[in-house]
Specification:
alpha+beta, seven-stranded antiparallel β-sheet, 34% strand, globular
Length: 506
Amino acid sequence: MDLTILVKVVVLWQSHIVRSQTYGTYYTAAVYEHNVILNPNPSVPCSRQAALEHMKKNLDVYEEKVATAAKKGAQIIVFPEDGIHGFNFTRQSIVGYLESIPDPQVVSWSPCLQPGRFPHTEVLHRLSCMAKNNALYLVANMPDSQDCGSSDPHCPPDGRYQFNTDVIFNDNGTLIAKYHKQTLYFESAFDSPPECEHVIFDTTFAGRFGIFTCFDILFYDPGITLLEKYKVKQVVYPAAWMNQLPLLSAIQIQQAFATAFELNFLGVNIHNSLLGMTGSGIYTPSHSVYHYDLDTSEGKLLVSKVPLPVYNKTSHKTSPPSSKTHPINNFFLNENRECDKSFVPKLMTGSVRAETFHSVMMYDNYTFIPVMGTDGDLTVCDGLLCCHLLYHRSHIPDELYALGVFNGLHVVHGTYYLEVCALVRCAGSTFDSCGGEIAEASTLMDFYIEGNFSTQYIFPSILASGMQLAFPDLVGWEQESYFMNKKSMSSGLVTAVLYGRVYEKD
């Protein structure tokens, strides 16, 4: 990970993507990327009192940020995964941090108003009072302990479940929902719930929200089920995400998820620059505010207005544009909306051809074809998946680019089936550097990329130099292919990716 990246808070206005929605009123949301104060010896068990003293340090920061967000008009604030207790615990060493969180569907309880109703719930009490005293909804992450017995065939040997848990409080401090993380990522302290939970909570200012956590975002359940079965159009997303370029930095996957489904997406990552953990944002179908910073140890509060969602369409099946607005036709138009005759003949008559090569990108063996010359028309395939690229750049740069394809099962740090088309700047000047981590580029490139995906679940993203996000001009389905195009970028292109998930092949 490049640690020289400048601190950035960026607002993008997605004015070029074709949309049929119109928005009414707005609400104000906040996310806080917290520089978590860690237990220096997380593998060593500690007393409840020591755990509380540790968590108090993080909760003190939370309290300050909630008050600041409320003064800025925030009606909801979301904190990251692991933000109160930290990480790298064992099943035994986290015991002092556990609280038995009552089921909000069974018990109506405001810990702030009834602090003695359930024992050993000091963290819940503190969070509840933050919400109540500042009159906003609050989402936080903490460990939950639930007793179980021999009648439960899934009950762990020590007689309790330990869950990575998100808790949601309304603006009077009542605990209204909790979600147990489904897809754990090297979290030996926790159990996955016996059945996947689909958690929705209602707000007085914006209606329904769904919730899932970090690694969950790459899997069908619970996220896709929330969108398809329960018609959720707003998501809160606590994470402790370790960035991995060139395809899966936190801001890439957050923005890609919001773009693919035209959602309001409140995504917040933990902040730990030494571990490459940063990247949070408030993403909507019309604009996004996000933050990425690996240079400092400072946390970051983002506050933004969010349009209320419209529940009248599904968004991952984009209607094909008419022939008059075909994305390839648009790609060939110049600034005056006239055909760019200097560009089209070069593509139509064939471009520089090169042999394919293989290189590893994010642990997967991609098939690449180099991007040569100023103009090109390239296709590269892996099995039945073929990726097609049209491109134009004003000069031949020193930077090497390649078009890559992967169609197969990813098996490192998780098992999931991918179909990916990716235009990437290579980390060096040799083919074996293609797929390596890089965050800077100077090449300005107009491009149209498409693939004949077998899945409808495709997450598009464009990453520009210095960890800036860019929005496609057009994105969606054209006949049997999913496409994305972009012209007139203001910063060098690092990655343009169509990241497809084939959930049924996992």
